[in-house]
Amino acid sequence: MIEVQGITKSYGAFEALKGISFEVRQGEILGLLGPNGAGKTTLMRILTCFLPATSGHATVAGFDVETQSLEVRRRLGYLPESVPLYGEMRVREYLDFVGQAKGLSTAERLQQATLAMAETGTDAVSGKLIRQLSKGYRQRVGLAQALLGDPEVLILDEPTVGLDPRQIADIRGLIKSLAGRRTIILSTHILPEVQALCSQVVIINQGQIIEQDSPANLAKKLAKGNKVLAQVAGPQDAVLRMLAGLAGAQKVGIQEDLGDGLVSYLVETSKEADLRPAIAKAVVQQGWDLKELRFVGLELEDVFLRLVTREEHKGEGEVAA
Q1: First CA to last CA across the chain, in angstroms?
Q2: Of the candidates 170, 174, 204, the residue with the CA atom closest to the CA atom of residue 187
C-alpha cells in the first residue's frame, strides 16, 4: 500500500533524510518514531506531497508521490500536528468546506461528512462552533476531516498531543477502529501508544532508519537476557534466597510489594534459560502460593532509548576517528 525506496532530502549541505526505505502493508498501522530533528516530519511531508524528495521514490496506493501527486492526495487523509481548524465555523459547516476543497459533490459532502462524524463520534456536536469544543473533540474533528473522501491511507502526526488520559484512550480506540480497511502511519512521541496500536515500527535517527520490526521482535532483539516475573505469597527473605539459588539465575530483585505477603519478584537469566518450571516446582515444594509466572519483555521505551543511544555513540566514534 505504501512503498518508500531510497528517499533522500537535502537542504543545501544538510541531509535531512539519508536513503529511507520501508513498506507498509494494506490495513497495517505503522509507528514512525524518532527524536526531535530525526526527519519524521520531512518524511511525512514527502509522503503527503507537500515536499519533493531530492532522490528516491515513494508510492501511495500504487501512485507515485511526485509524478502522480493528485491521485495520491485523492487516496490520502492527513492529520498534521497542528490541526487545521477554523474556530468560527460549526463542525458540519467546516467539514462541508473541507469536502469542497477535496472536490466532493454536494451529495458526496453530505454523505461523507455524516459518515465521518459518526465514525469519529462528533455527530453530537455537529452544530457547535469549533472554538467551543474541548481539545479532545477538536482532535476528533481533525480526524473527521482526514476521513473525508474515504481515503485508503491515513497519515497522523501526534494525534493525541495535549490530550488528557481519558481523551488519549478515546482517540487511541478510534485510531484502532480505523485500521484494517485503511492503512495508517502514526507518528508520535508517546511510546506506549505505539506499543498499543502498531504492528510495525520504523525508528529514524539523524535522517536514517536505525531499526524496523514489530515491537515484540525489537524487544527480543535488544534483550540481553530473559526476565521472569513471579508473584509469590511467602516469606520474603526465604523466597529471595530460593530464587537466587536456582541454577541460571543471574539477578533477583523485588519489583513490587503487593501487600498481604504477596510480592512480585523479577528474575534475570541468560537468553537461553527458562526458569519458569524450576520456580513453579520450588514454590510448590515450599508450600507457598504462586499467583503469576511469566516472561517480561522490554518496553518499547527501553528499546527506543537503547537504539538511539547506540547510534549516538556510533556517531561519536566516527567523529573521533
Answers
A1: 42
A2: 204
What is the CATH T-level fold of the domain 2-220, as seen in this structure?
Answer: Rossmann fold (3.40.50)
Architecture in CATH of 224-295: 2-Layer Sandwich (3.30)
Q: What angle do CA 71, 73, 78 make, to 5 degrees?
A: 160
Q: Which residues pair with 108 in a beta bridge?
A: none
Q: What is the DSSP string of 112-143?
A: HHHHHHHHHT-GGGTTSBGGGS-HHHHHHHHH
What average pLDDT does the chain have? 87
Task: Give tens-digit pLDDT for 178-220.
Answer: 888 899 999 887 777 787 888 898 989 889 998 888 877 776 6
Instruction: Record the cell numbers describing residue 12, joined without a space.
Output: 543545501
C-alpha cell at 118: 459518526
Taking the C-alpha atoms of residue 145 and residue 206, their distance in angstroms, rounded to an integer, is 32
Residue 202 gets which letter from DSSP?
E
| pLDDT digits 0-9 by tens, 215-253 | 777 766 665 678 889 999 999 999 999 999 999 898 899
Cα distance between residue 178 and residue 155, in whole Å:
12
Residue 135, pLDDT score: 86
Specify the pairing of strand 289-295 against strand 226-233: antiparallel
**Bridge partners of 10?**
15
- Residue 127 φ then ψ, to 5°: -95, 5
Segment holding 152, helix H or strand E: none
* Cell 547506540, located at residue: 310
Count of positions (residues) in the chain: 321
Alpha-carbon span 185 to 204, nearest angstrom: 14
Q: How far apart, in whole angstroms, are the C-alpha atoms of residue 20 and residue 207? A: 8
Distance, in Å, from the CA atom of 112 to the CA atom of 100, rounded to the nearest integer, reads: 12
Name which of 137, 151, 134, 124 is nearest 60 in CA terms.
151
The sign one gets for the Cα dihedral 217, 170, 205, 270 is negative
Break the chain into its structural domains and give their ranges: 2-220, 224-295
Measured torsion, CA atoms of residues 209, 211, 212, 213, in degrees rounded to the nearest 10: 180
